[in-house]
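Retro notes (design track)

What went well: tokenization of the new backbones is finally stable.
What didn't: we kept losing track of which sequence belonged to which structure.
Fix going forward: every design gets posted as structure first, then sequence, in one message. First example under the new rule, 141 residues:
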């Protein structure tokens, strides 16, 4: 299988373009209303995993070399009060499995890389500060 760095280095050596998936949320919101959910797109991991898989498959079908898991907003701290910590942890793993299923469904096992998408602490704040860095992390008393 090799490591991702070797794969990328080989693509660069051959001067090949690497196509990554685009805005996952843009495509997902066509089928799932997650705007008011605290976990934003992560809501679909619980409510509509088939739609998450469909979005992965859409990006694979158009030729993406890499897809990212729908886990950027999958915050254990944020989602545990809604679903319970164990369920949130299981759904985090299931979101990764969903990306694998999409790749398998289109028979792209060796051709499409799966990257884990991990948001910063600020994704839990839902104020855009994960993009600006304008948030403060403090320890709970």
């Amino acid at each position: 299988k090799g490591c991702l760095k070797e794969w990328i280095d080989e693509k660069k050596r051959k001067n090949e373009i690497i196509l990554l998936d685009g805005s996952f949320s843009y495509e997902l919101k066509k089928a799932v209303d997650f705007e008011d959910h605290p976990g934003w797109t992560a809501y679909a991991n619980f409510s509509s995993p088939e739609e998450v898989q469909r979005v992965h498959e859409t990006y694979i079908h158009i030729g993406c070399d890499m897809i990212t898991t729908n886990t950027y907003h999958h915050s254990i701290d944020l989602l545990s009060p809604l679903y319970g910590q164990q369920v949130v942890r299981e759904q985090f793993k299931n979101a990764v499995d969903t990306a694998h299923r999409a790749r398998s469904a289109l028979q792209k096992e060796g051709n499409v890389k799966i990257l884990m998408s991990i948001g910063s602490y600020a994704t839990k704040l839902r104020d855009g500060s994960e993009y600006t860095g304008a948030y403060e992390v403090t320890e709970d008393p």
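Added context from the reviewer: The chain has a mean pLDDT of 86.
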